[in-house]
Specification:
single chain, 459 residues, mainly alpha, 26 helices, elongated
């Protein structure tokens, strides 16, 4: 849910790496001490450039063959490339070392080799020996557990570090992340607010707070958080996009359009931006404007399923069924497993009074996704109109099982039962329908005028 912090820039390391790369190219000569070679290896390792790591390490071991620090870096490279056993052997050869990095690596390799109890003992040993900097020690250890998805243990370590120093933003960010991963959203929110109390201009904290509120569907609070984040960094495209999404969720479609268009100025992903804007116009029932933006999206991405179905929906809502049909068929060419496109096709056929093809399309949609109460109702209605009452009842009951709040489902079951001569059951269902909607009795008589002489439930 949270965004990751940017990779920190180390100007000193960059200068050393630049000198090292000039040395490799023959443009410079020089000597590199152990600390400089450690920096070079770490620089490449952070960027996933393991081949460059190995090359620098080979030079280091030629210059400093007895360096424990460089042996430690070799173990770190093995860990990064998945050679856990090789890393373990190197670290075991340094068994008596009390070097901080060596102990951290031992913790990691023990976890990867599935020795959690030994790893935890190593954690306790490190914390006991580094008593002056417990918050950072706990943070370093937590990173190891986080990298392996061990959120509960990472959380325990971070909470210990937080007790020692409750004002460490780096630790608090990871603490909040762990609360999110363990679904303790209230504590995650409280932790981001603690970061904001320390640094009210933390764009990262405001954004992540907005993300949490968005996930909890507390959209107004999410909007407030995104607005603070955007005030701090008005060029943050992701915050702008999320702000637009919140306006959409709040049915503030005009504001959402404005935010989406602002986001569009920040990104090259025009086809998706145009989709978002089109959906807002569709919600506003400004179908012509929606079609314009759906069409623009389609121009940017001709195989854009969402744009094709979006245009089709706008045309169907305007009862332009024949015009909408080609767009639905093009969408199905892209994805014939999309159950919603088959529903749109069925609705187009219904609009064109072609119930036979509509039924086939509805049934295809249900075969792809049976969990569609409205589609089941539509199928039942076709069977009802065709006089296939028993089949209609089966589909009405299936729809009702999925959603017992469907409007008039009990009325239509009553009609079907009456048509089959099951008068007693028809009246039972009609009574339920009348309780749900007082117009049900009148609608029943419209559909079954021959029932006028029966003792029907009153409104």
């Amino acid at each position: 849910m949270s965004r990751k912090l940017s990779l920190p820039v180390d100007d000193e390391s960059s200068d050393i790496v630049k000198r090292y790369e000039q040395f490799l190219s023959g443009k410079a000569t020089g000597y590199f001490d152990v600390e400089e070679l450690e920096s070079i290896v770490e620089f490449y390792l952070r960027r996933g450039r393991t081949k460059d790591c190995n090359k620098a390490l080979e030079l280091g071991q030629q210059l400093h063959p007895n360096s424990i620090a460089l042996k430690t870096k070799r173990a770190k490279i093995y860990l990064a490339t998945g050679d856990d056993q090789k890393a373990f052997r190197i670290l075991e050869s340094l068994a008596e070392s009390t070097d901080y990095e060596v102990m951290l690596l031992k913790t990691e390799v023990l976890l990867k080799l599935e020795h959690p109890e030994e790893a935890r003992k190593m954690c306790d040993k490190i914390i006991a020996e580094e008593t002056d900097d417990i918050d950072n020690v706990c943070l370093d250890l937590a990173y190891i557990y986080l990298g392996l998805g061990e959120y509960e243990t990472a959380l325990e370590l971070l909470e210990k570090g937080d007790e020692y120093n409750p004002s460490s933003p780096d630790l608090l960010f990871e603490l909040a992340f762990c609360y999110e991963q363990t679904e303790n959203y209230i504590k995650a929110i409280a932790t981001y607010n603690r970061i904001i109390d320390i640094d009210s201009y933390s764009n990262e904290a405001w954004f992540n707070l907005g993300q949490l509120y968005f996930a909890l569907q507390e959209f107004q609070k999410a909007l407030n958080a995104y607005e603070f984040a955007q005030t701090i960094d008005e060029n943050d495209s992701l915050t702008c996009l999320q702000k637009a999404h919140v306006h959409f969720q709040l049915n503030q479609f005009e504001e959402a359009i404005e935010a989406y268009l602002e986001y569009g100025q920040m990104t090259d992903n025009k086809w998706e931006t145009n989709i978002f804007v089109a959906e807002c116009y569709e919600k506003l029932e400004k179908y012509n404007e929606a079609i314009i933006y759906y069409t623009r999206s389609l121009e940017n991405n001709p195989k854009n399923y969402d744009a094709l179905t979006g245009i089709a929906i706008c045309l169907l809502d305007q009862e332009k069924f024949a015009d909408g049909m080609p767009f639905i068929l093009r969408a199905l060419e892209i994805n014939d497993e999309a159950e919603d496109a088959w529903v749109y096709l069925a609705e187009a056929y219904i609009g064109l009074d072609d119930t036979k093809n509509a039924l086939m399309a509805y049934l295809k949609s249900i075969s792809l996704d049976p969990d569609q109460p409205d589609t089941l109702m539509a199928i039942a209605n076709i069977f009802l109109e065709n006089g296939e009452y028993e089949t209609a009842i089966q589909y009405y009951l299936a729809a009702q099982t999925l959603d017992d709040t469907l409007e008039f489902v009990n009325l239509f079951i009553a009609v079907s039962k009456f048509k089959l001569g099951e008068i007693h059951e028809a009246i039972l269902y009609l009574r339920i329908a009348v309780k749900e909607n007082e117009t049900a009795a009148a609608l029943f008589l419209e559909l079954c005028p021959e029932a006028d002489n029966f003792n029907l439930p009153e409104n």
